[in-house]
Amino acid sequence: MPSPSPSGPPVLPISEHEDEIVAAVEANPVIVVIGETGSGKSTQLSQILHRRGYTRRGAIAVTQPRRVAAVSVSRRVAQELGVSIGEEVGYAIRFEDRTSEKTKIKYLTDGVLLRESLSNPELKQYSVIILDEAHERSLNTDILLGLMKRLIKHRASDLKVLITSATLDGLKVSNFFSGCPVLNIPGTIFPVEKFYSTDRPTNYIESSLRTAIDIHVKEAPGDVLIFMTGKDDIDKMVSKLEERIQNLEEGSCMDALVLPLHGSLPPEQQVRVFSPAPPNCRRFIVATNVAETSLTVDGVVFVVDCGYVKQRQYNPSTGMYSLDVVEISRVQADQRAGRAGRTRPGKCYRLYPSSIYQKEFLEATVPEIQRTSLAGSVLYLKSLNLPDIDILKFDFLDPPSRESLEDALRQLYLIDAIDESGQITDVGRLMAELPLDPSLSRTLIEANELGCLSQALTVAAVLSAEITLRQTRSKDMEGKRKRQELPDGSGWGDHVQLLQIFESWDQADYDPRWCSDHDLQVRGMKFSKDVRNQLSQIIQKIAKGPTDLQARRGRKSDPEYRKLRRALCVGYGNQLAERMIHHNGYHTVGYRTQLVQCIHLLYLKVMNTGNCLCMSSTTN
Ligand code: ADP
Questions:
Q1: Which of 45, 97, 160, 320 is found 20 to 30 A from 561 (Cα to Cα)?
Q2: How many domains does the chain have?
């Protein structure tokens, strides 16, 4: 296949500092690069170092906290260099590796780099590691910062580490790395006029919609970027906006194009936001916070900011996650506004009063490390077997609280990943090898013991692909009837329902039409099949029974579901809740004093009656 013709690197602020950057990299093992969003950090730094010969002794790894950014930016760099993705330039995200022997510039999520360091702690395959978007302060990037600090002591002569960010406190990171240099890349940013609402709107979708239409009717040409909290809001907003634009009086405004932008959008739809608007047409890009700093959309002159973001929060008292809509921080609000001033003076409409911005918003977003369960990370650090690492004293940029580290140790103990003395167990080591969260890994290992590994693999794959079951969108009777044909779990719960759905698709020979007929996302279902194959390959070396689906065709018996539920209860032993028959509810047993005893009793109960609820990791 011929290679695509190169589009060539554009002239971005960072290009003018090429010599300065290379000189700093040459003279120091670690440097920090701070530059405005859109200055070219993600797409150009790797190319500069590639051009200057840094890929002769190893590849360049560029980490991204978000999968969507790893895919999108690598595609862009491949296009600029005129190569096909997966050759000189590639990407690796969990369950998807588009790299080859030839790959010199590799974009990968921070989680994938952590995983690579499990099998290759010195990361010898890389001559340069760029930790991009460090201001996002993802848990994995924070752990990588600590690991890089150790690594450069061992590889001072042949490894270069760059930490890049749009808003990070450069001095703090520099102090963390014993005073390494900080390069500031000044960007051109035009003034952005900010308009505040007098009150918080009761319905921010409706309010954003009205503001967007107002801009379309009254303002000069220029694209509009609208921040929403998640996919559901975006879908609603896109369809309502299209409808209202169509109903505007004909000829009253220029044409309009409404485009969604979020992490679960198929790549071919994601790239649409990077094509400029057609003549006499205004683009409305309705996005999540991926458009804050991860992906730079050119042509934006107006920003509509609802002031909210969806954030995953962990509650140690229940051991559960929730996905909450919360207020953004002032740093986020400023980043959002800044998107309007990249090419010319712009306007930002903030759907909240300025007093809320000043007094209610936090200065900066709370780093993920302070609002997440650390069980997976602690297990990972323990499995690295670093002789001098005491988990409670690991060198973090912002250390997590002692409570959350202890909470992680307790969780790991409950699912047998560590023993009483805190040492990683054999089970824990197996768990760390699986690219899943500890509870799901533990479920697979237990399922292997109980003889239901094949079913558990399917459940783990479908959960990892985040397939959602929605109400049918079909308006006709036939569509509704088809949807009702989907298995319902036969009273065995959501996990069994997911298993049955996947098995029905297997019976239909993986026909994509079967998915669309039943209102299931074809892409998500195909992805879960792919994930299942990968997981089953990884687990082969310990598998005691068949992992393929063929061996199970047509078998759907109660004892098998019972075994699967047992495995899930062991895996999620730290998230069990007891049914309170007289109160019509459930009582979590996570952190009572006699916790271990309690879990043990409950475990026995589950074995006997199945009268327990095993909660999945995120509740809405
Ligand atoms: P930074 O990392 O400093 O925020 P980037 O390197 O991501 O900056 O972006 C630099 C330029 O490259 C921007 O103008 C952006 O629009 C463009 N760009 C980035 N990714 C893509 C893509 N996938 N397709 C087209 N253009 C892109």
A1: 320
A2: 4
